[in-house]
Inverse folding.
């Protein structure tokens, strides 16, 4: 049904607002500094492989420098400052993020490949919302339910993924700072730019030097941060594989750890669901952010009696998805973040075909340059297929069926992951029953991929432990009588 | 009346086929059918429309959309103070919306009260602009059946091409669906060759589930178009309501092969509103409805805003309202 009459003319968001430097150092102790050993790497736009800037690959000595700066700031300023003053800084950062929202959205779409509609309407407004929310907690921690006088942990090492670069930064930095910790944050190697722009915002807000330190780099930089003895807390969002390595390397240490890892969420559609909205929810569940979402609804479990209607409607809807230039305001699905990720998506999709599932994509033209993958659905998938078990982290949906609510729960829970799930039905009692049975940190009812700073987020099983967001998110950054691993 | 039986792909989850005669055989079976339609989640429907409203329609796309919107307008005057003179002026505008620019398309139709139909017919003869008349005790619909039928017959006799009837919202809300159904069937019969638009007055139906049910009821009863509102009740045409009606005509055609038109009316005043409507048509029902035969915009002040935007695109600057004619 892809329209042939009403052809939307290109509507590109202007890049003129950006003041991008050709190279960036590390943000340590309140200023951008050159690295000790001077290694650099390039960050590209995944939409066309254009080089955006050169950034620093921080080595062990740089990590040490950053941790020391954070320690100094913790001892001398941040932990001794009245809590309401900390709150003021966070409010100020939140306001500057709102003021510079367009700049941040353009840069996020450029570096990550996500559509400007999403960075503009979802990512950046949520970033500001998380800072506002945790700013409010800063001077109310004694009322948060963690004892009469909860204390910060010290220096937090934070490692974030490339799928929501600035939003994940907000999820990490806002609660850490509100609780009185200082941080050393490492953004993902393919998406460092908004974190570096955030460093400029910290300067603009006059945040005391060393409270926030941003070090760029790849896996080795992350490892040096995790293993640094001066770190009191590690917060990681990323793959389950790396999460397990972090858990191993921090075992037996004083470091408190929270991990937010992979997922293979079930989006469960009953035959009495509001079908048109359920189809929107399926699309939003797996094609939002090119499916680069740890809580993506990558497994559609649809009741057999509604299967044909849902799949027919879904295919028609996919025909209207607009894949292309992330900076075009009408783009629905942008670029895959990296060549490496694209290869992984292609590999698992090929496996899906070999396993006998039926592959379908709407007709859509993909750009020649950059990293692209058409929205794809696999029907006739069974629990035994790899595409029903492994996280693809791309715009690929596996469709399975069920007959009864009990079978839906069994299949939904039959995964080592447990980050999120969705339930679609008009029956309120069924929603509540399902929510009690599903082993997932977040259960959405008649919606999907909705986030709010007041709501805790986190996983069961191999999707990790600890919660981010809401009052619960404070606990990860407070000494609550148990300085050890709080699993 | 349609009597084909098709097995459903998308649409109502009840029943193995769609046979209007059987569905309307009793109040109970009609009720079973309408209440078997999939529900509408209000939050989800409104979120979808909000997303579609962010579509950025610029340059060539905007020019195309503005011309299409002009050609879809049912230019309307429905006031107690209407006179033959007022209707004649409106007709002149309908035929040639911008006297300074002959490339502007004509509007789809003029919409007036039944007693002024003959004036409009006279003015519009040979122009291609249709004459639509409201009928059935518009806008409340609170009259006896013989009065409604006579109202319709008058308009048809005077030469109306299209009849915009109102449903009995009281009967609908109290669950007397068969009564509403039979009324539409009777009015359709009285229309003869004239096309029937069925006004649901969605502002009084209150819920999106009701909008969906009323849409199906009107389509099953033989309406050629479903229309949101009279323009006399607030809220009139809202985007979520229009989207739900477009979903209904899309699903109805899948089931029966019969295409039904949609007309949002009331409250669409700016070019931006009109373009949002066209985006919703494009991404809900698709190409086949992007045509004045299948989608109309009931409006009056909208036309001048479209003309102003059109002039802006052509000349690169805005001109004041004095450069556009009063209706």
């Amino acid at each position: 049904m892809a329209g042939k009459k009403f052809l939307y003319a290109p509507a590109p968001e202007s890049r003129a607002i950006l003041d991008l430097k050709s190279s960036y150092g590390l943000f340590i102790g309140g200023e951008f500094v050159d690295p000790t050993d001077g290694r650099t790497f390039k960050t590209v736009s995944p939409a066309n492989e254009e080089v955006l800037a050169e950034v620093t690959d921080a080595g062990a000595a740089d990590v040490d420098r950053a941790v020391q700066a954070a320690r100094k700031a913790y001892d001398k300023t941040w932990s001794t400052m009245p809590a309401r003053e900390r709150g003021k800084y966070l409010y100020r950062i939140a306001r500057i993020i709102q003021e510079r929202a367009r700049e941040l959205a353009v840069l996020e779409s450029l570096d990550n490949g996500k559509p400007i509609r999403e960075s503009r309407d979802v990512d950046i407004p949520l970033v500001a919302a998380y800072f506002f929310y945790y700013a409010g907690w800063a001077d109310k921690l004694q009322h948060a339910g963690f004892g009469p006088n909860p204390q910060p942990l010290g220096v937090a090492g934070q490692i974030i993924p490339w799928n929501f670069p600035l939003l994940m930064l907000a999820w990490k930095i806002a609660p850490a700072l509100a609780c009185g910790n200082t941080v050393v944050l490492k953004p993902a190697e393919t998406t460092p730019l908004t974190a570096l722009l955030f460093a400029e915002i910290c300067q603009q807000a006059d945040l005391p030097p060393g409270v926030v330190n941003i070090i760029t780099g790849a896996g080795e930089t992350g490892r040096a941060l995790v293993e640094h003895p001066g770190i009191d807390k590690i917060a990681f969002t990323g793959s389950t594989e790396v999460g397990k390595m972090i858990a191993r390397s921090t075992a037996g240490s004083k470091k408190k750890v929270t991990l937010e890892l992979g997922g293979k969420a079930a989006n469960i559609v009953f035959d009495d669901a509001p079908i048109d909205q359920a189809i929107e929810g399926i699309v939003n569940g797996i094609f939002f952010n090119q499916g680069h979402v740890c809580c993506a609804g990558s497994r559609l479990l649809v009741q057999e009696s509604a299967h044909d209607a849902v799949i027919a409607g879904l295919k028609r809807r996919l025909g209207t998805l607009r894949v292309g230039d992330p900076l075009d305001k009408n783009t629905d699905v942008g670029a895959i973040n990296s060549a490496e990720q694209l290869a992984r998506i292609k590999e698992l999709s090929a496996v899906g075909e070999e396993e006998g599932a039926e592959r379908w994509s709407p007709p859509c033209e993909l750009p020649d340059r950059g990293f692209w993958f058409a929205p794809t659905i696999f029907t006739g998938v069974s629990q035994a297929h790899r595409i029903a078990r492994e996280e693809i982290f791309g715009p690929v949906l596996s469709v399975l069926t069920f007959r009864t609510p009990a079978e839906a729960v069994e299949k939904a829970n039959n995964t080592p992951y447990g980050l999120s799930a969705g339930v679609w039905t008009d029956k309120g009692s069924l929603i509540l029953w399902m929510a009690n049975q599903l082993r997932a940190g977040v259960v959405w009812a008649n919606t999907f991929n909705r986030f709010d700073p007041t709501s805790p987020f986190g996983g069961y099983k191999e999707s990790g432990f600890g919660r981010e967001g809401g009052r619960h998110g404070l606990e990860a950054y407070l000494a609550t009588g148990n300085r050890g691993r709080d699993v | 009346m349609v009597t084909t039986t098709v097995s459903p792909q998308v649409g109502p989850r009840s029943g193995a086929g769609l046979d209007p005669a059987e569905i309307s055989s009793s109040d109970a079976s009609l009720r079973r059918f309408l209440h078997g339609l999939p529900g509408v989640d209000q939050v989800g429907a409104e979120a979808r429309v909000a997303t579609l409203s962010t579509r950025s329609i610029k340059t060539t796309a905007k020019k195309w959309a503005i011309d299409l919107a002009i050609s879809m307008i049912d230019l309307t005057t429905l006031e107690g103070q209407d006179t033959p003179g007022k209707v004649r002026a409106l007709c002149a505008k309908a035929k040639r919306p911008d006297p300074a620019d002959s490339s502007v398309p004509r509007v789809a139709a003029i919409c007036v009260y039944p007693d002024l139909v003959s004036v409009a017919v006279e003015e519009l003869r040979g122009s291609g602009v249709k004459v639509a008349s409201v009928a059935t005790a518009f806008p409340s619909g609170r009259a006896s059946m013989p009065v409604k039928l006579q109202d319709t017959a008058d308009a048809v006799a005077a030469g109306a091409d299209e009849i915009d009837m109102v449903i009995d919202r009281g009967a609908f809300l109290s669950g007397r669906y068969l009564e509403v159904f039979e009324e539409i069937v009777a009015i359709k019969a009285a229309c003869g060759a004239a096309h029937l638009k069925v006004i649901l007055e969605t502002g009084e139906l209150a819920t999106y589930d009701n909008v969906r049910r009323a849409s199906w009821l009107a389509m099953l009863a033989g309406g050629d178009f479903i229309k949101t509102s009279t323009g006399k009740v607030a809220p009139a045409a809202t985007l979520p309501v229009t989207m739900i009606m477009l979903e209904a005509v899309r699903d109805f055609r899948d089931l029966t092969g019969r295409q039904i038109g949609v007309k949002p009316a009331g409250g669409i005043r700016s070019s931006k509103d009109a373009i949002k409507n066209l985006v919703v048509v494009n991404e809900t029902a698709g190409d086949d409805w992007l045509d004045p035969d299948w989608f109309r915009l009931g409006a009056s002040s909208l036309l001048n805003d479209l003309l102003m935007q059109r002039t802006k695109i052509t000349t690169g600057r805005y001109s004041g309202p004095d450069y556009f004619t009063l209706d």
Residues 483-487 of chain A have pLDDT under 50 and may be disordered. Chain A touches chain B at residues 1, 3-11, 117, 121, 271-277, 280-281, 305-306, 308-309, 312-313, 316, 320, 329-330, 426, 446-447 (CB under 8 Å). Chain A has two domains: 26-261+461-479, 266-445. The first strand of chain A starts at residue 26 and ends at 28.
